[in-house]
Amino acid sequence: MNVFMIGGTGLLGCEAAKILIEKGHKVTSVALPPLPEGAPIPEEMDIIFGDINKKSDEEIMELLNGNEVFIYAAGVDERVEFPAPVMDYYNKFNIAPLKRIFPLCKKAGVKRAVVLGSYFSYLSKLRPDMKLTDKNPYFKSRIQQEEVCESFCDDSFSCAVLELPYIFGTQPGRKPVWTILIEQIAFMDKWPFTMYPGGGTAMLTCRQVGQVIAGAAEKKKAGFEAIPIGMYDYKWDKFLSIVYKARGMGADRKIVSVAPWMMKMGMFKVAADYKNRGIDSGMDPFNLPDIMDLDLFINDTFARELGATDDDIAAAIEDSIKVSVASYNGTVKLLEMKGE
């Protein structure tokens, strides 16, 4: 099987490429330079450096010809900051490329697409009573992304959107997104405890994401699917115990669960900071406490059906946090995550 991927040198795309190549498939990827120093990018993957959005339709068609599967392992999540209006940026990185490339895929004879999405889409559909897409531009954009994917599906073209939760693991030379967590909790280091919401989240390792992407690419399924993906369910206090251990502060740090109304009091400062810096957040800071109070867990059935196998999630969290701390302290120089 021939696979064309956008984002094959990123943390998740690289994992998928390795697994697909191990299974005997041919992988070609467009990626933005430079490559992260030391990253284990498979030598067998054909890499075309450049910005896919700056290529002509004819150039993209030439790349797509002869491929059966297209994988979009790019885009941005809610942790990347943008000026107003933030929806313009979500459209630029997460939606518009698919609107443009999917018709070209169908014209080139590509039969299937796999798109990396977000489990916030899953939550939006699970809890319509919370009106999450009305309050949070990022949630709205991910639902719109799924709607665009579904609109192109027919008897000759199928698409699977993987609704991915929090992901842990590192790629040598690249800055983890979890640096933002260190920034958020560092001010409490001098306290005898850490205050945090009482909910929890689904999660998995980057290797497992690679397995799931490869499984979805190989899957023979007509039409459109939005698949919620998860392997492990952790309450925030259990997760933070691993975080503090990785920071060298011990795994027995006291975590005090706070009610959403208490967390919202602290969000006035966050909202003021966004305003001062000209940031249009994809997440409503006053809705975030309600979201983080939920047990946003996902059964591992779907992930295992797509080929995910057990992994050491605690070790992956520790690795992510240790590199994030080094980045936060400025002791290492790393490439930023980018939207490709």
Summed up, what is this model?
The chain has 340 residues and is α/β, with parallel strands linked by helices. 43% of the residues lie in helices and 18% in strands.
Explain what this protein looks like in three dimensions.
It is a single chain. The chain has 13 helices and 13 strands. By secondary structure, it is α/β, with parallel strands linked by helices. Strands 3-2-1-4-5-6-10 form a seven-stranded parallel beta sheet, sandwiched between helices. Strands 7, 9, 11 and 13 form a four-stranded mixed beta sheet that branches. Helix 1 crosses helix 8 and helix 9 packs across helix 13. The protein is globular and about 60 Å long.
Strand order, largest beta sheet:
3-2-1-4-5-6-10
Summarize the helix and strand pattern as letters.
EHEEHEHEHHHEEHEEHEEHEHHEHH
Count of DSSP H/I helices? 13
Secondary structure class reads alpha/beta
Give unreliable regions as ranges: none
Fraction of residues in H or I helices: 40-55%
The overall average pLDDT, rounded, is 94
State the end-to-end CA separation: 24 Å
Cα gyration radius (Å)? 20 Å
Outline: globular
* Percent of sequence in beta strands: 15-25%
Largest sheet: 7 strands, parallel
Number of strands: 13
Features:
340 residues, alpha/beta, seven-stranded parallel sheet, four-stranded mixed sheet, 13 helices
What layout of secondary structure does this protein have?
Layout: E1 2-6, H1 11-22, E2 26-31, E3 46-49, H2 57-64, E4 69-72, H3 86-108, E5 112-118, H4 119-126, H5 132-135, H6 137-151, E6 158-164, E7 166-168, H7 179-185, E8 194-197, E9 200-205, H8 206-218, E10 224-228, E11 232-235, H9 236-246, E12 255-258, H10 260-277, H11 288-292, E13 295-296, H12 301-305, H13 313-329
Parallel strand pairs: 1-2, 1-4, 2-3, 4-5, 5-6, 6-10, 7-9, 8-12, 9-13
Antiparallel strand pairs: 9-11
Helix pairs in contact: 1-8, 2-3, 3-6, 7-13, 9-13
